[in-house]
Amino acid sequence: MNPLYRNDRQGQLPDSWYAASAEIAPDRPTLKGAVTADVCIVGAGYTGLSAARHLADKGLDVVVVDAHRVGFGASGRNGGQVCSGYNMSMRKMAERYGADHARHLWDLAEEAKADVRALCAQHIPEARFRNGIAEAAARPGEVADLHADANFLRHTFDHDAVRTLDRAEINALIKTDDYFGGHLDESAGHIHPLRYVFGLARLAEAAGARIFERSEVHHIVHGDPAVLRTGKGQIRANHVILAGNGYLPSIVPKVSAKILPVNSFIAATEPLGARAAQVLTQDIAVSDSKFVLNYYRLSEDNRLLFGGRPSYQIAFPKDIKTKLSARIAQMFPQLDGVRVDYAWGGTLGITINKLPAVQRIAPNVVSASGYSGHGVALSGLAGKVMAEAIAGQAGRFDTLAALEIPNFPGGTAFRAPILRLAMTWYAMRDRLAV
Ligand SMILES: Cc1cc2nc3c(=O)[nH]c(=O)nc-3n(C[C@H](O)[C@H](O)[C@H](O)COP(=O)(O)OP(=O)(O)OC[C@H]3O[C@@H](n4cnc5c(N)ncnc54)[C@H](O)[C@@H]3O)c2cc1C
Fold first, then answer.
1. CA separation, residue 301 to residues 152, 304, 427 (Å)
2. What is 3-77+194-257+354-417's CATH topology?
3. Can you tell me whether residue 386 is helix, strand or coil?
4. 131 alpha carbon, distance to own chain's centre
5. Domain boundaries defined on the chain
């Protein structure tokens, strides 16, 4: 069994506030026997379901298989932040890739965000898209950088939705002494991630895609067609999309060489009522610049949904609740005594340079993963461009695939220990505020 699955009950969604506040769809069938399809998609998260809907809309016969359930992976348990751009500033991307390529990449990321907003507005209103993400500087020296990023977006890409915040402005929004300034992007936003992924599945099925749950792909025989084997069945497909992100086991070495599974954790407090305004004075989401970053927002019933504490260990710690409660108390002492009702973890895929790994693995196999904390928006777009590539229009796929993603040093055995050492060092710097 994939060791990551030991953190969860097999075939079950985790006990999160999201699961407690969503209408869970009835079980879908397990794949049994042999089926054929134009396209087989491995993974029923945002990436796989977006690809499925776009391909089915084009009239292709699509099968999606998930080892567990729709939304079992990161898509059903994340921080819900629909971010602008990538997990690398556009300033840096322009330096690295040149102005034209950076502009093209920015436009794709803007489309990704607009797609989430439009899907929520037209088809998945229960995901409740809310505007605004603040990025907060945890050290005085980082304010200038965040302001330069915001000004670059305003001047180079006419992105007027972002504005800089000085210390007084950020303290008026976020009631902690920990921040020195930052920026607020009103075009970014936050959603209920599990309701959103359920909505994507509904749309994919309405377009004609077939989804099988509790059907883990153990082996792929490459060829034309490719054959994918699950415990009880097999799929012969002309094309394959790998959309397992951090959960995809090492069945495809070209993918696992570039993707490191990282765990992140979220706590949901009891409803705060009027005390919610003692944390955030607007219904925005926040992420901060601490290397061991925190991300948080309020839920529709005024709970604080507080995430952080990334870990490179495969097993989740036993005391997620205690650790996150301590972090909340440290940042927001005014919440002293507030109960944490839910705490859960999940696995995301990161790449070494934090840019998504969009790859052609074989002539008829494509893959997208490693959004590095920016996948709520970018994964849907990746699914869409993979669908375009399969339909014969590979231009936008090639733009994303042109991002160079080096393999992790140390191979699959040593990359996690190397990164753990680096994390300990940066976590210590956070604590010492250096
Ligand atoms: C705690 C947490 C907080 C996060 N917060 C944010 C955030 O605020 N904003 C943001 O943009 N991003 C965030 N992310 C990342 C974001 O959730 C992901 O980038 C995104 O959901 C990736 O979607 P996906 O469809 O590619 O992968 P997933 O949603 O992980 O789906 C992959 C699916 O593939 C299945 N699978 C894997 N291997 C196989 C196999 N062999 N056979 C069959 N099925 C298989 C798994 O069961 C899983 O359901 C967060 C992630 C976590 C874990």
1. 36, 9, 32
2. FAD/NAD(P)-binding domain (3.50.50)
3. helix
4. 18
5. 3-77+194-257+354-417, 83-192+261-350
Count of other CB atoms within 10 angstroms of residue 424 = 11
For residues 247 and 309, give the distance between their C-alpha atoms in angstroms, rounded to a whole number.
Answer: 19
State the Cα–Cα distance between residues 366 and 73, nearest whole angstrom: 19
Residue 297: strand pairing partners: 305
Give the model's pLDDT for residue 291.
57
The protein residue whose alpha carbon is closest to atom 20 in ligand 1 is 375
Please give the number of the atom of ligand 1 that sits closest to the Cα of 377: 11
Hey, whose CA ends up nearest to atom 41 of ligand 1?
217
Residue nearest to atom 18 of ligand 1 (CA): 375
Best of 8, 66, 129 for a ligand 1 pocket test (most atoms within 8 Å of beta carbon): 66
pLDDT 10s digits, 286-322 = 999 765 679 999 999 999 999 987 777 788 888 999 9
Neighbour-count burial for 36-67, b at 16+ CB within 10 Å, e otherwise: ebbbbbbbbbbbbbbbbbbbbbbebbbbbbbb
Q: Are the beta carbons of 172 and 281 closer than 8 angstroms?
A: yes
Please count the residues of the chain.
434
* DSSP character string of 11-60: T---S-HHHHTS-PPPPPPPP-EEEEEEEEEE--SHHHHHHHHHHHHTT-
Residues 200, 335: Cα–Cα separation, whole Å: 36
Instruction: Give me the residues of the chain with pLDDT under 50, please.
Output: 430, 432-434
